[in-house]
Amino acid sequence: MADPKGFLNHGREVARSRPVEERVRDWNEVYVPGSLLPIISKQASRCMDCGIPFCHNGCPLGNLIPEWNDYAYREDWSAASERLHATNNFPEFTGRLCPAPCESACVLGINQPAVTIKNVEVSIIDKAWDSGDVAPRAPERLSGKTVAVIGSGPAGLAAAQQLTRAGHTVAVYERADRVGGLLRYGIPEFKMEKRHINRRIEQMRAEGTRFRTGIEIGRDLKATDLRKRYDAVVIAAGATTARDLPVPGRELNGIHQAMEYLPLANKVQEGDYVAPPISAEGKHVVVIGGGDTGADCVGTAHRQGAASVTQLEIMPRPGEERNAGQPWPTFPMLYKVTSAHEEGGERVYSVSTTHFEGDEDGNVQWLHLSEVEFVDGKLTAKPGTERKIPAQLVTLAMGFTGTDVENGLVSQFGLELDARGNIARDAEFATNVPGVYVAGDAGRGQSLIVWAIAEGRSAARGVDRFLTGASDLPAPIRPTDRSLMV
């Protein structure tokens, strides 16, 4: 273990953020480069040898958190990286993007601030990259079997890397022009610079994984033709059908889904545009949806020079501490202030949009809303609370309802869907079509990056067994497993 008295001697310290006035002028990550390493050994020492590490239960990957905390405390970075990679293909992604259910389940968190698990994780992997400890792991021999992976988000990449290392020849199909899925175009640069994706892709290429971009299965290439080419297929296409807002005025110009808005800002950083086709510059921006995607829209609007930014959430404002209905070690719904919220804007809770109002040219100008409250268990508008706010750009960040069924992928394969609109699968992550498997949000529904990677790893084991009759690949979760929540 780390320092037996570490949690008594040291308080919680997190990565330092760059000043707001500095970071909103660029798209670099918000944290001060190198600020973690001087404090991370002390922070890792706070891991308290709790006997039963509930952080394992909080993380679907089953990360060996006490082990790599101990190595980080001792500054044995090579050993820490090995333990980190034993359960997680891409810790630099999760260390930056995961909301850290492991920290919510930390035993120390019962009566003290939890261990900074995310910060330790990202420190280890960044140190590993800098020191050359991350290298390609090509298979010793090839199986002669071929696998197609549809989608290059975290689930698809994890499945592809596991299957490549098992000796299969793997090709990843991505409908966008670059590899990465929502990691590439849905996550703003200020949350994760895309160089982290790029070097992982280069590692995977060196291991033997092949990538085919700009090809949408179902439209550009029929699913049936793909099935004929490969011995197995893994569908990791995500849950990309966005929830819409069917209220009067929805057809006005200037109202966009978040995933129409955010990718364009990222494409500017990739050099595809000088300025984004959809920009918040000089506009009153309203973001509908209080989750992480909404926060990404808020931070993007700040950097584009919005006149004002307002984020709306239909649910009441969460508390700042656990309540009795969300006991440890479950993941609590707490009031969260992200880096984007630190940068300004207004957050409004318990409100619902009633309609939009536009100008004579069909451009949105106003958003009408009313306050809501729970009546007999249902959200109901409160009479007399209607008002309007300026809105010249509106982004809808209200989540996703299921996988894309309009591009032909589901129908061409002949896949069955479950009651929630996700692709149905069995205990091995196999669909009703022999040799076709599903991983990530396409089968689970909208979820977290750690669940996506865990699904990709688990589905890879199912595919490996299908192709060879047995598998030594790990399967950290079952399709029916769910987050540690109440």
TrEMBL record:
<protein>
    <submittedName>
        <fullName>Glutamate synthase subunit beta</fullName>
    </submittedName>
</protein>
<dbReference type="InterPro" id="IPR028261">
    <property type="entry name" value="DPD_II"/>
</dbReference>
<keyword id="KW-0314">Glutamate biosynthesis</keyword>
<feature type="domain" description="4Fe-4S ferredoxin-type">
    <location>
        <begin position="38"/>
        <end position="69"/>
    </location>
</feature>
<keyword id="KW-0560">Oxidoreductase</keyword>
<dbReference type="InterPro" id="IPR017896">
    <property type="entry name" value="4Fe4S_Fe-S-bd"/>
</dbReference>
<dbReference type="InterPro" id="IPR006005">
    <property type="entry name" value="Glut_synth_ssu1"/>
</dbReference>
<keyword id="KW-0028">Amino-acid biosynthesis</keyword>
<dbReference type="Pfam" id="PF07992">
    <property type="entry name" value="Pyr_redox_2"/>
</dbReference>
<dbReference type="InterPro" id="IPR023753">
    <property type="entry name" value="FAD/NAD-binding_dom"/>
</dbReference>
<dbReference type="InterPro" id="IPR051394">
    <property type="entry name" value="Glutamate_Synthase"/>
</dbReference>
<dbReference type="InterPro" id="IPR036188">
    <property type="entry name" value="FAD/NAD-bd_sf"/>
</dbReference>
<dbReference type="Pfam" id="PF14691">
    <property type="entry name" value="Fer4_20"/>
</dbReference>
<dbReference type="InterPro" id="IPR009051">
    <property type="entry name" value="Helical_ferredxn"/>
</dbReference>
<comment type="pathway">
    <text>Amino-acid biosynthesis.</text>
</comment>
